[in-house]
Amino acid sequence: MIHRFQRHLVSELLKQILTVMGAVVMMFVLVDYLSRLDDFIGAGMSACRAGQYVLFKVPAMVVLLAPVCTLVGTVLTVGLMSRRNELVIMESGGVSVMEILKGAIGLGAVISLCMMLVSETLSPWATYQANLIRRIEIKKKGLKTTRGENIWRKSGDGSILHIALYHPKDSSVSGVSLFTLNDAYQLVRRVDAARGTHLGNGKWAFERVLEQQLSPDRPVKTITHDQLVVDIDLVPDDLHHAVKTSQDMRLSELRQYIRRVEKEGYDASGYITDWYARLLFPLASLLMAIIGAGIAVRRDWAGRLPLTLTLGLGMTFTFWILHSLFVSMGHGGVLPAIPAAAAGLVLYIPISVWLWVTQGR
Question: Which of 12, 36, 84, 316 could hold 68 in an S-S bridge, CB 3.0 to 4.6 Å?
């Protein structure tokens, strides 16, 4: 009998969670599309292409919304069963609520695993495609990237700029090469620099520079500079939108990128925090399933569905705020990467334990 009740509960839970998720995603798609309509029209995009741009953002939104949808679906399902006295009937038949709700916890674990897969596979690819459309078709930025790291840019004067790494934390670049071509597309000057910083007004300061001047009728002239100021029509904001962000990369890609940044001698604490946050955040769905079930079965809140929903939503949004705050502290180096990524989850574990210990059944 207990397995039949568990199957019934899981079936109802799944229906409610998918219904809530579908409604929220549809609302997000509609609002995002309408809010960007002026941008789409200004860029001359077709309705189909604009729709693609919005839909590419859905996988990341699903991962972000999974905890709240899991909690709301759990509270609705178990709360309605409690209001209809189904839980009381099950208890009178010798089936404990704890046994029945193992199904809810198991479903939360499955959702967490699914979100891990989406976060590692579909979400990075789709987010990158959305950013690509935004940069090239909406913002009309001509920067090209390879593997999300190397940046190539061709200027109107025929020069070609290559940047190996862009560091958003201080808006600097490293591994810079500037190629200058003549009207016959022959290379006449090459500048290689270990590092570059933006000075403003279209000027960049290159450090540890090797300059080569080439001419068909004389040997290559090589000059070294400790620092060289170069005119480049490029601002850090252009680079920020060109490179892959942590959300655009798979965890394996992000790990390789972290190693590369550290090898260049730069602080990678922000990327390390993002790596652990990406890994741990899907577990929030499991935690919210436990909390949602604990809220819904409390005897003192039985049948008070608006109250339990309000409490559940409040706890979920508080978790989002705390998680974002701790991750930001990790980016700033205030907290180590692992505590910053895990702090929100760890703080909510005692709450879930308290809800079950004091549920009164």
Answer: 316
